[in-house]
Every structure is written in structure tokens, then in C-alpha cells.
Amino acid sequence: MSAHEDGRGRVVLGGSTGFIGQDLARRWRAAGREVVTISRHDADLSWDDQSGIDAAVDGAGLVVGLAGRSVNCRYTPANRAEIFRSRERTTAALHTAIGRAATPPPLWVNSSTATIYRHAEDRAQTEASGEPGTGFSAEVAKAWERALFAGDLPGTRRVALRTAIVLGDGGVLGTLRTLARFGLGGTQYDGHWPVGRARREAGTAHDFRTRGGRQRFSWVHLDDVAGIIAFLEDHPALEGPVNVVAPGASDNRTLMATIRRALDVPFGLPQPRWMLELGAIGIRTETELILKSRWAAPEKLLAAGYAFAHPDLDEAVRASFGLGAAPSRDPDPLPSRRESL
Asked: Which domains are present in the chain?
């Protein structure tokens, strides 16, 4: 049976130059699959080449959309507009190509984000019972999914990957590792901070909610992102939004302690909000990325029988750092270990 006949033919990968895209392309090519990449640069096709995208999508076994301007920036009016535009435009290009295809791909998975849910400290947000959030970040996610699910594509199953923070060799964890090595890997505390009228009207204001570094941290390992996409190919009953998150959400205090322990760093300077806000201005990012309580659960995946390769945060962090199993230790060597989820 050919690769196309078994449903694992050509992959069209939009957004191929990012942390996740590069990893997926490498895996698929190593497995012998043809991969056609689309990006603004360093790819087989550009987003301006609609005819090329149409040709690549027609007869493909899988389309994956990951493109969009990074949200790791200051939410200026120009950046907000580009964050929306980049997601809507690239998703529309894939949608158009699938709609024109004589042989449409059986599956299109497209990025979304678990940030679509509200700030949650009381319970995990699932695909069935999760409550949508408000403000700029949540509205971006909603617009992204509207572009994915718009109109009829009768030959193609569509899945929105509501992905949490992805752990691996790079990405967010790379930044946190650097902070920890410089003694700045302590708990990141929310607190009061003045918010101007313009930011509040734009939906980019973060209000103080969570005390003690207990903002929830949903996460998933890079290996499981690839594993989940393969699982979706094999399970045609799965469609619509899917939470791409490990089953055990952590919190900020536990995350930072886990990183320090993996790196054998005994101390991390705690970072109150005023320090985080000044630092965010300096490196041109937003504190919402670490202060919003993101708590989602993979209800659909677990019900369908997906087995996570990395369900444990401690193991996932060590694997991301290229470390082996944790050495034996006293059951509670750090106070943070008592702060159970």
C-alpha cells in the first residue's frame, strides 16, 4: 500500500520555521514522508503563492497550519493588528486551497491556543465545559478558530489544536533555563500594577488575581505534539477543538522549582510583579504570558485512548534538557515539593 493510500501521504506544513514546525518537519522527513513547507522565508512556498499552495494541498494526506506572528512581544496597536492578520491570512490561504482541491486532504489540523479559555484557578477547562476568556489573547484565539471552521469543506476533517506551553529543547523552556542558571529562577508572583485606560480598552490589561505563584501552568512536551497529530490521523472520530495539553497541570511555583532541581540550582530569586513588568518592558514582551492562570485538560485525547509520552512535569523538563532520570533523593528536599497541585 502506498503512503497516499494509507492516508499518510504528503504533508503541507504552514509555519515551518518556528520551534514546533522545524521539529515536525524533521520527524516527518526522517519517517520518509514528503513535506512541503510554507513560510515567509526559508520554505518551499511563500504565503503570497496561492497557486503553489493550491497545488501542494491537492492530493496531500495532511495539512498542518502553525503560522502566526509570535505573541512574545509588546501588545502595541501595530503588533496586535499583525498578530490577528497573520493568523487569519495564513489560515484563509489553506482554507482556500482545500476548497479548490480536486482531491482534498482528509485532515487539516491548525494551531489554536489553550489561552482561548478564561483565567482559571477553580477547575480545569475541557473542550466540552471550558469557558471562553475575554481580552486580546482570547479574542485572537477565537478569530483563529473562526477562520479554520468557516464554510463547508466536506472532504476534510478539521481540528483546532488548543496547545499549551510546549516544552522541548528551546522555546519558552530555553528562556527559563537561562534565567535559572543566573539565579533568577524563582517563583513569578502576580501583584498590583497600574493599568492605563488604553490598555484596558484594548483588552491587554492583566488584573491581579492569583497569590503565591499559584497561577496554573498547562504544558505539553514537543514529543507529544507530534504524537497527538499522528494520533489524530489514525482516529477519524476526533474533530473540532482538541486540548493539546498534558494531563497534569502544574503551577508557576512548582514549574520553577522543577527547573531549578533539574539544573541542580539551589536558589532562585523570587520575581514580584513590579520586577516582571519592568523586565517585560526591557525585553519587549508581556507579563500576561506568565501571570495568566492557564488550566486546561485533554479530555478528548484521554477519552480516545491517547497515551502521553511525557505525562510527568519533572520527567518532561529533564527530557527537554537532555538529562536522564532524576537521581534518587529525599522525598521532599525542597519546600516547593510540598506545594502539591
From this structure: 11-323+332-338 (3.40.50.720)
